[in-house]
Design a protein that fits this description.
single chain, mainly alpha, 10 helices
Length: 254
């Protein structure tokens, strides 16, 4: 629940009455839930923007990459696609490939000429290129999944925090009734009402966070699968153009 919705929520009907009769502990729980709501909505909005931008940049990158059958062409042109997860994998693979073939990942005006006269690499060297792309996939995945723990905490922790506030409030309500010696509905209702508001608020925090978390997790997993598939595609392109498989055969013959 966003802060604006939270204020509207508290201002509607008997919720104001419940809030006024909540105990100090209940109001502390409500404040904690409000802070958690702000953080969870901030994470959801930020991550959704990041994923939307990543998809847009990825589409641009793939269009540029597949226009030319030379896998190192974009690297040679020093092209940039910030925010595209697949480009991170591409750049890591190209840098390692250039290092294995030329001894340096630096791109200058002689890069194309040096690449044209360079010898093909061995399958063992290609394994190093594949490992570099796998590392890039893992690092990018961790970056995409950062701060998701806040949403997971909001989903799983908010209901328990609200329940704690409710149980505590009901306990205080019954204690007050027992001390007053007047066990009737009129004396119990305000305390019970003030206790239940924490559970209601907790559910209003957890439910949007749950939907946002599930959407983001599914989207991030889809991007990770795309990175794995692209790494396999790029490795295939590299092997076709730059790997000499006869090196392994000659080594076995010796």
């Amino acid at each position: 629940m966003s802060p604006l919705l939270l204020s509207n929520f508290l201002a509607s009907g008997g919720l104001v009455f419940a809030f006024e009769h909540a105990t100090v502990a209940g109001k502390v729980v409500l404040l904690t839930l409000a802070i958690g709501s702000i953080f969870s909505w901030s994470v959801m909005i930020t991550k959704m923007r990041v994923i939307r931008f990543a998809r847009k940049q990825t589409a641009r990158f793939l269009e540029a990459f597949r226009q030319d059958r030379q896998p190192l062409r974009l690297f040679e042109r020093n092209a940039r696609f910030p925010g595209a997860p697949l480009f991170n994998v591409y750049r890591a693979g190209c840098e390692e490939m250039a290092f294995q073939m030329l001894g340096s990942a630096e791109v200058d005006e002689t890069f194309r000429a040096r690449l044209g006269t360079a010898d093909k690499i061995s399958p063992a060297q290609m394994n190093a290129v594949s490992a570099a792309m796998e590392r890039a996939v893992g690092e990018t995945a961790l970056e995409l999944e950062s701060q998701m723990i806040l949403l997971a905490t909001a989903v799983s922790g908010s209901p328990f925090l609200g329940l704690l506030g409710t149980v505590w409030g009901v306990m205080d309500a019954f204690t007050g009734v027992a001390e007053a010696g007047a066990p009737n509905l009129a004396s119990m209702a305000p305390g019970v009402s003030g206790a239940l508001i924490t559970t209601v608020t907790a559910l209003c925090v957890a439910i949007p966070a749950m939907f946002g978390y599930n959407f983001l997790v599914t989207s991030i997993r889809g991007i990770i699968v795309e990175m794995d598939n692209f790494a396999a595609e790029l490795a295939s392109e590299f092997e076709h153009k730059y790997v000499d498989h006869n090196v392994r055969e000659s080594a076995f013959r010796k």
